[in-house]
C-alpha cells in the first residue's frame, strides 16, 4: 500500500470553483508505475482529481462506475511527487472518507481502460441525447451497455439501460422503453442503488403517462418521490422530474391548483441548482396549466421563457413541444399565421429528431387550425397525416400489455373521429369509411389480441401536391435550423420561394375541390377503400351496408349500395342520448309486464327514428331487402331486428346481419347443401356448480345434427358431445373437419380484457377466449359458428360494445370461420331451443341464406307458424317439414326478449 488515510470533508476545508470541498494528499511515484487510487465514502458523492507536482491535471474520476467509490487506475507518466484531491462532487458534499493508493498491474490498467471507454461512450450518448439526436445516441449507449455487461459492472449496466429506455421513449417506441426501464429497475434494486431506482420509477411512470394509463403513472411517481425524499438529495434528477410529472397527471385529472403546486416546488429546486433543462420543462408545464385555465397571456409568457432556455441549451425535443404549445395559444387567440409558423417550426424539429408523438400532435393541431379557419379540405390533409403517424405508433404498441394498448388508443382516438366527421361533412363517404375501418380493426385487436399490422390512409391526387409542397418546406426548415442565423442567403431565398409555391398550391387545391364538388359527386373516391365495402353489398342484390358513426355531438349514417352508390345522413342526436336510450332499451327487454313492453316500444321507436328512419326513403325507393350493419360504439348493443317503427319491427321488412368490419368479412363462399355439410355439436344439459340446467339443449342439438345415435331427426351429419363428453379436447380434435360448429352452453362475454369471458364446458370448466383463440388455425373449414344460450354482459352506459365484436373475432376472419351467430343476452332455454331448430330446418332447404333463415325463425316466434308459412310462400319456399316444438315451451315467445338477441355476424350468405 503506497498510501492509506481517512479524513472528513467539513466546513472550512478548501473549495474548488464550484464551491465543492476537498482535502489534498501527496505521494511519490515513478515513471511507468501502475497505481490504483480509490476514494470511498458512504456520506457524500465522491470525486477524485490527480495532479502532478506542477499542478497539471493527470486524471479525474467520479463514482460513475460505483455508487460509493471514485477510482483511478493509471500508469504514472514521470518520477516525482503527485497531488490527490479528495473531493465532493457538488457543494453540498460533507462527511468522512477513506483514501487508498495501491500498486496495480497491467491487467488492472486494461480493465480500467475498458471501464473508461464505457464511461466515455455513456457520456457521448448523453451529449447526443441532450441535443435531441436520439437515433445517433443509441449506438454509443448500446456499445457502453455491451462493455458494462462484459465487465460485470452492474451499476453501469443499469445506467446504460435507463438511457436507452429514455431514447426509445423519445422516439415513441414505448414497448422498448418499458422493457429497458424494467431491466434497469431490477439491477438498481439488486444493488440497493436507491437514486437510480427512483429515476427509473419516474421514467416508467412517464411512459405510462403518455399511454394514458394515469393511475399507474401516478403510482410510479409517488414511489419515486418517496425514495428521493428519504435520500434527501434535492439535486437528484428524479426529484425534479417526479414533481413535474405528478403535476402533469393532476393536470390531466383536472386538478389544476395541485398541478401548479407541484410545478412550483420543482421550479424552486431547479433554480437553486441552476438546472436549466429542469427550468424549461417546468415553465412549459406551468404554461399548459394556464392555457387549460384560459389564462392565455400568462401561458404565452411561460412558454416563451421555456423556449429561450431550450434554445440556449440545445434541448430540441422540449423546444418542439413548447413551439407546439405556443401555436395552440395563438390559435385560440385568433393569431392564425403566428400559430401556423410555430407549428411549422415544431414539425421541423420533431421530424429531424424522430419524435413521432409530438409530430402527430402538431399535425393534428395544424388540421385543427385549418378547421377553425373554415378550410376543411386542408384540415383533412393534415388530420390524415396525423392519423398515419399515430398508426405507426399503434402498430409498434402491439408488444405492450393489452391494457396499455387500450389506454393509448383512448388518448388518440379523437383525431380519427374528427377526421371522420370532416370527411362526412365534405361528402367523402368512402374515405370516412376507411378511417372507421382503421378504428374498427384496431378495436378488435385491442379486445381479442388478434394480429394487426396497422393501416395507412392515402392521399387523393388533389391532396398529394399539398403534402409534397408542405414536405419541401419542412425539409428546407430542417436545413435552416442547422445553420440559422448564419445560413447562406440562398437558403432564405429558397424559403421565400417555397412558401409562395406552397400558398399557390393551397389555392389551387381549394379551387380543384370546388370544381370537383360541382362536377363529380365521387371526386374523392380513393380506390384503396371501395373494394371491401362493395364486395360485401355486391354479394347479394338489394343489399345496403350501413355504418352508424357515433360522434360526441351527432350521429352519421353512412351507407354503401350495389354499384358503388354511397350516401350519408347527419342525425341530430348526441352520443350520450344514444347511449342512454340503448341502455334503457336493454333494461326494458328484461321485463315481461305490459307496462314495460309499452315503454320498450316507445324507446325502440325512438332508436328507429335515429338509426333507420333517415334512410327509409332510399331503402324503399330502391327495393332494398337486405341490411348489413357495421355497428359503432353503443349501437353494438342493439339487436337491429327489434327496432320498431310504430307498426312493426325491422325484422318484418328486411333480412338483417352484422359485420365487424368490411375488411374482415369473407363473402366469397356460401354454406353447402346438407349432403356436403358436416357439423359438430357441443352442449351442456345438466346443472353444474353455480349454473342452472339447460334441459332443452339436447333437443336443440338433435334437431340440428344427425349423429350415429340420432338418425331419425337430425339434419346435418356429424357428432354431438353432451355434458361430460363436451371437453376442450373434444372441440380441438373434431372441429377441423366441421363446417358448422354449434355450442349450446352457459357462456358470458364481458367488457374486460382480463380474461373473464368464457364458455362453460360439459365438465364445468371455463374455457377462456384465449383457449378458443389458440385453435384459430383449426377453424379454416368452418362456415358457421352458433353460440347458443350465451350472453354478453351490459355493464353500464360508459361501455361501447367492443366486447360484442371481440368474442366474434376469435372465430371470424380470413382463413377462419365465415359467420358467427351469437346472442346479446341470456335468453329462455326453451325459446332458444325452438328458434335454433327452426333456423337449421329453414337453412337446410337450400333456398335461404343464413341472414334470411334467422329472421324467418325469429318470425315463427313473433307471429306463429301460420304467419311463417305465408312468409315462406311469398319467398317461393315450400316448407315441406314439421317444425319441432320445445319440450317445455315458454309463454309469450312473441316478446322480443325471446327472439331479438340472436344476431348474424360476418358472411350473411
List the helices and strands and how they pair.
Layout: E1 3-9, E2 14-15, E3 21-29, E4 34-40, E5 46-52, E6 57-62, E7 69-75, E8 80-88, E9 95-103, H1 106-130, H2 134-150, H3 154-170, H4 174-191, H5 194-210, H6 214-231, H7 237-252, H8 256-273, H9 276-292, H10 296-313, H11 316-332, H12 336-353, H13 356-372, H14 376-396, H15 402-425, H16 429-448, H17 464-483, H18 489-519, H19 527-538, E10 543-550, E11 555-561, E12 565-571, H20 575-589, H21 594-611, H22 616-621, E13 626-629, E14 655-658, E15 679-683, H23 697-704, E16 705-706, E17 716-722, H24 728-734, E18 740-749, E19 758-760, E20 766-768, H25 769-773, E21 784-792, H26 802-809, E22 819-823, H27 829-843, H28 850-862, H29 865-874, H30 896-899, E23 902-906
Parallel strand pairs: 10-13, 13-14, 15-17, 15-18, 16-17, 18-21, 21-22
Antiparallel strand pairs: 1-9, 2-3, 3-8, 4-7, 4-9, 5-6, 5-8, 10-11, 11-12, 18-19, 19-20, 22-23
Helix pairs in contact: 1-2, 1-3, 2-3, 3-4, 3-5, 4-5, 5-6, 5-7, 6-7, 7-8, 7-9, 8-9, 9-10, 9-11, 10-11, 11-12, 11-13, 12-13, 12-17, 13-14, 14-15, 15-16, 16-26, 17-18, 20-21, 23-27, 27-28, 28-29
Explain briefly what this protein structure is.
By secondary structure, this protein is of the alpha/beta class. It is built from 30 helices and 23 strands. Among the domains are: 102 residues, Jelly Rolls (Sandwich), CATH 2.60.120; 106 residues; 56 residues; 138 residues, Nucleotidyltransferase, domain 5 (2-Layer Sandwich), CATH 3.30.420; 233 residues, Rossmann fold (3-Layer(aba) Sandwich), CATH 3.40.50.
Amino acid at each position: 500500500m503506497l498510501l492509506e488515510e481517512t479524513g472528513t470533508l467539513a466546513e472550512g476545508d478548501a473549495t474548488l470553483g464550484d464551491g465543492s470541498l476537498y482535502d489534498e494528499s501527496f505521494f511519490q511515484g515513478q515513471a511507468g508505475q501502475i497505481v490504483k487510487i480509490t476514494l470511498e465514502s458512504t456520506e457524500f458523492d465522491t470525486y477524485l482529481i490527480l495532479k502532478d507536482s506542477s499542478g497539471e491535471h493527470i486524471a479525474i474520476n467520479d463514482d460513475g462506475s460505483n455508487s460509493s467509490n471514485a477510482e483511478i487506475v493509471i500508469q504514472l507518466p514521470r518520477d516525482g511527487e503527485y497531488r490527490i484531491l479528495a473531493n465532493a462532487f457538488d457543494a453540498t458534499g460533507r462527511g468522512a472518507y477513506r483514501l487508498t493508493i495501491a500498486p496495480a498491474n497491467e491487467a488492472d490498467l486494461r480493465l480500467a481502460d475498458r471501464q473508461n471507454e464505457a464511461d466515455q461512450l455513456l457520456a457521448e450518448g448523453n451529449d447526443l441525447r441532450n441535443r435531441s439526436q436520439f437515433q445517433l445516441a443509441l449506438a454509443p449507449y448500446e456499445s457502453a451497455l455491451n462493455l458494462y455487461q462484459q465487465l460485470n459492472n452492474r451499476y453501469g449496466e443499469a445506467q446504460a439501460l435507463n438511457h436507452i429506455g429514455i431514447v426509445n421513449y423519445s422516439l415513441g417506441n414505448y414497448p422498448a422503453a418499458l422493457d429497458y426501464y424494467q431491466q434497469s429497475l431490477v439491477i438498481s434494486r439488486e444493488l440497493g442503488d436507491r437514486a437510480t431506482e427512483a429515476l427509473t420509477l419516474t421514467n416508467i411512470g412517464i411512459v405510462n403517462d403518455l399511454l394514458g394509463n394515469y393511475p399507474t403513472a401516478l403510482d410510479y411517481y409517488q414511489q419515486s418521490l418517496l425514495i428521493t425524499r428519504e435520500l434527501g438529495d434535492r439535486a437528484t434528477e428524479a426529484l425534479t422530474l417526479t414533481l413535474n410529472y405528478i403535476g402533469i397527471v393532476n393536470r390531466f385529472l383536472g386538478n389544476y391548483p395541485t398541478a401548479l403546486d407541484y410545478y412550483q416546488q420543482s421550479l424552486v429546486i431547479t433554480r437553486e441548482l441552476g438546472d436549466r433543462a429542469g427550468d424549461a420543462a417546468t415553465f412549459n408545464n406551468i404554461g399548459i396549466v394556464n392555457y387549460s385555465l384560459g389564462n392565455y397571456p400568462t401561458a404565452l409568457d411561460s412558454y416563451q421563457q421555456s423556449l429561450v432556455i431550450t434554445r440556449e441549451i440545445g434541448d430540441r425535443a422540449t423546444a418542439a413541444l413548447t413551439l407546439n404549445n405556443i401555436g395552440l395559444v395563438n390559435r385560440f387567440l385568433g393569431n392564425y399565421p403566428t400559430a401556423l409558423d410555430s407549428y411549422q417550426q415544431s414539425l421541423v424539429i420533431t421530424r429531424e429528431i424522430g419524435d413521432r408523438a409530438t409530430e402527430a400532435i402538431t399535425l393534428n393541431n395544424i388540421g385543427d387550425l385549418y378547421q377553425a379557419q373554415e378550410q376543411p379540405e386542408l384540415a383533412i390533409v393534415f388530420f390524415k397525416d396525423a392519423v398515419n403517424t399515430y398508426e405507426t405508433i399503434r402498430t409498434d404498441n402491439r408488444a405492450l400489455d393489452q391494457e396499455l394498448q387500450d389506454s393509448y388508443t383512448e388518448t388518440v382516438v379523437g383525431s380519427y373521429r374528427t377526421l371522420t366527421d370532416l370527411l362526412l361533412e365534405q361528402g367523402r363517404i368512402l374515405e370516412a369509411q376507411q378511417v372507421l375501418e382503421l378504428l374498427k380493426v384496431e378495436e378488435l385487436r385491442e379486445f381479442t389480441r388478434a394480429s394487426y399490422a396497422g393501416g395507412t390512409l392515402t392521399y387523393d391526387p388533389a391532396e398529394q401536391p399539398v403534402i409534397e409542397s408542405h414536405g419541401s418546406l419542412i425539409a428546407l426548415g430542417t436545413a435552416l435550423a442547422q445553420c440559422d442565423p448564419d445560413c447562406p442567403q440562398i437558403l432564405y431565398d429558397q424559403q421565400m420561394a417555397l412558401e409562395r409555391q406552397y400558398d399557390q398550391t393551397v389555392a389551387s387545391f381549394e379551387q380543384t375541390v370546388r370544381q370537383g364538388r360541382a362536377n363529380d359527386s365521387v371526386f374523392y373516391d380513393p380506390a384503396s377503400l371501395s373494394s371491401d365495402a362493395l364486395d360485401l353489398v355486391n354479394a347479394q342484390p338489394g343489399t345496403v351496408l350501413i355504418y352508424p358513426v357515433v360522434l360526441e355531438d351527432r350521429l352519421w349514417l353512412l351507407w354503401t349500395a350495389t354499384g358503388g352508390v354511397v350516401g350519408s345522413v347527419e342525425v341530430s342526436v348526441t352520443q350520450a342520448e344514444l347511449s342512454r336510450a340503448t341502455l334503457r332499451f336493454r333494461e326494458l327487454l328484461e321485463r315481461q309486464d305490459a307496462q314495460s313492453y309499452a315503454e320498450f316500444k316507445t324507446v325502440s321507436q325512438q332508436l328507429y327514428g335515429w338509426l333507420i328512419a333517415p334512410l327509409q326513403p332510399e331503402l324503399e325507393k330502391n327495393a332494398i331487402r337486405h341490411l348489413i350493419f357495421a355497428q359503432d360504439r353503443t349501437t353494438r348493443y342493439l339487436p337491429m331486428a327489434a327496432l320498431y317503427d310504430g307498426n312493426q319491427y325491422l325484422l318484418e321488412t328486411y333480412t338483417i346481419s352484422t359485420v365487424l368490419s368490411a375488411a374482415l368479412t369473407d363473402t366469397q363462399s356460401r354454406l353447402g347443401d346438407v349432403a356436403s355439410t358436416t357439423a359438430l355439436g357441443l352442449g351442456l344439459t345438466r346443472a353444474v356448480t353455480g349454473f342452472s340446467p339447460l334441459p332443452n339443449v339436447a333437443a336443440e342439438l338433435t334437431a340440428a345434427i344427425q349423429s350415429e345415435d340420432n338418425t331419425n331427426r337430425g339434419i346435418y351429419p356429424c357428432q354431438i358431445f353432451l355434458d361430460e363428453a363436451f371437453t376442450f379436447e373434444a372441440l380441438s380434435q373434431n372441429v377441423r373437419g366441421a363446417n358448422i360448429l354449434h355450442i349450446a352452453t352457459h357462456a358470458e362475454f364481458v367488457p374486460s380484457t382480463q380474461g373473464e369471458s368464457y364458455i362453460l364446458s360439459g365438465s364445468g370448466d371455463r374455457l377462456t377466449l384465449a383457449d378458443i383463440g389458440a385453435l384459430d388455425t383449426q377453424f379454416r373449414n368452418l362456415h358457421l359458428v352458433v353460440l347458443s344460450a350465451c350472453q354478453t354482459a351490459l355493464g353500464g352506459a360508459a361501455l361501447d360494445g367492443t366486447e360484442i365484436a371481440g368474442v366474434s373475432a376469435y372465430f371470424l376472419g380470413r382463413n377462419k370461420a365465415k359467420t358467427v351467430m351469437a346472442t346479446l343476452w341470456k335468453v329462455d332455454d326453451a325459446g332458444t331451443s325452438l328458434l335454433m331448430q327452426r333456423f337449421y330446418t329453414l337453412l337446410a332447404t337450400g333456398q335461404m341464406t343464413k341472414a334470411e333463415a334467422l329472421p324467418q325463425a325469429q318470425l315463427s316466434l313473433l307471429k306463429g307458424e301460420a304467419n311463417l308459412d305465408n312468409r315462406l310462400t311469398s319467398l317461393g319456399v315450400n316448407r315441406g317439414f314439421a317444425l319441432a316444438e320445445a319440450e317445455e315451451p315458454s309463454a309469450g315467445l312473441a316478446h322480443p326478449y325471446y327472439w331479438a338477441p340472436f344476431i348474424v355476424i360476418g358472411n350473411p350468405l
